[in-house]
Amino acid sequence: MSETRGRRAGGRAARQAARLHAVIESVPFLTRTLAPLEVLSNEGLALMEENADTILEQVGIDFRDAPDAIALFRDAGADIDGERVRFPRGMCRQLVQATAPREFTQVARNRERSVVFGGANTIFAPAYGSPFVRDLDNGRRYGTIEDFRNFVKLAYVSPWLHHSGGTVCEPVDLPVNKRHYDMVEAHLRLSDKPFMGSVTHPQRARDTVDMARIVFGEEFVEQNAVIFSLINANSPLVWDATMLGAARAYAEANQAVMMTPFILAGAMSPATVAATCAQTLAESLAGMTYVQLVRPGAPVVLGSFASSMSMQSGAPTFGTPEPALVLYVMASLARRLGVPFRSGGALTASKIPDAQAAYESANTMQPTMLGGANFVLHAAGWLEGGLAMGYEKFVLDADQLGMWHAFCKGVDLSENGQALGAFLTNEPGTHFLGHPHTLANFETAFYRSPLADSSSFEQWESEGASDTAQRANAMWKRALAEYEQPPLDDAVDAELREWIERKKASFPDSDV
């Protein structure tokens, strides 16, 4: 019995490995063929824009400890009251539309992996910012730089992730004021996909730019966006000096910034969809206006991250209807404004990759894709409301991203897709299994998951009766074992290492 089980299990592993290697190593970012779903009429969207302008004009936005921002807004015609900035109606929209690009390319170290923000394009990136990691073997624990590097590698080898992401987990075993060197280095060395820069301090943003200049060349960085960054508002209606300083550092270097309000509706905004949308638009507009005043034409993305919350515990909830409606509305508003849009992800409050994680992640990815998000942060690995990055969850989510790739291709109306020839050469009552059209298409006709088990109960039981998390556990370990680092020019590699060592040695470690 054990020998039979071993042979079958080995056969199963071989089949899964063959399916994995049948997929090309990398696929381009998604170009959606389906029209985005609209949940508001043009009149409703115009009302949201009017309400956002009312917030900007009558309430205003606080720009905390940011005299440079205050000066820029004053010179542009805003009303200044201490740190409170009130914008004449329509001012922010006019400034953003005048100079912000509708689309832009983030150039990757491997030019074939560059991505285009905006239009009908969708870019998948891993989860971001978790202090903890989780796997079946070791449970929940603080993240380390080894974990960080592992997730960069997993994102690199996955064909369905187009972006390396940013803070894929916090490496808490490194000093706070120096860990960004190791994180950015991991993205630059262990992957050749696009990446996100550090935003926890303006100097760390400038360090990211300097590291990119070493790898890409100083003149190239001046003329091309090679770094993308997540800049969060301090909702409600506040932008703080740390985020603004990082945004300025990137904008001055002509690098891309994503101005994203992070809102738990009911606490950080009023507890309604329309109010949350109006506030999100107002905050993001103010942030993007600042970027355009720093450097007209600097790439910006309208970001939205809105979640409902439990009115009993105050904890964020995911996969619920109201944030999905916010996402649909905000995607429409970004298209009307004429800038790329970021939102969504495979979000869940579950602590482990269980049924709750599956349905909440599916419920947050569906509006992300149907709404037409251009950049999807947190597309793989998110657990525990973002507090944990899961190894098994990562590969489970990546499998779902592969399915979204297939879905977003839409209906194939080519001659092969219509398959009229198959009908005309097959008698009624005769199945198509042996037909030449089926034989020519069976390997690529349907998405084939390397994780899902579609075998009989008896076969599944004989092969160990493993659940999806156990299969995912084996998959991420195999992926890391087979990982091969992408090539990097020896001289560039040496210069990058020397620069990092010199910078780290130039000031003491700190926990801030």
Which properties best describe this structure?
512 residues; alpha/beta; TIM Barrel; 2 domains; seven-stranded mixed beta sheet; four-stranded mixed beta sheet; 47% helix; 13% strand; disordered N terminus
What does this structure look like?
Helix content is 47%, strand content 13%. It has helices spanning 2-22, 42-59, 67-76, 91-99, 145-157, 179-190, 202-216, 218-223, 241-252, 273-294, 321-337, 355-371, 391-408, 415-418, 420-424, 436-441, 457-462, 468-482, 490-505, and strands at residues 30-31, 61-63, 79-81, 84-86, 104-106, 115-117, 121-124, 132-135, 139-142, 195-196, 227-233, 238-239, 256-264, 300-303, 305-309, 316-317, 341-342, 375-376, 382-383, 388-390. The protein has two domains: 42-96, no CATH class; 102-408, TIM Barrel, CATH 3.20.20.480. Helix 7 (202-216) packs parallel to helix 9 (241-252) and helix 13 (391-408) crosses helix 18. It contains 19 helices and 20 strands. The strands form five sheets. Strands 10, 11, 13, 14, 15, 16 and 17 form a seven-stranded mixed β-sheet that branches. The chain has a four-stranded mixed β-sheet with strand order 3-4-2-12. It is globular and about 80 Å long. It starts with a helix and ends in a 7-residue tail after the last helix. With 512 residues, the chain is of the alpha/beta class.
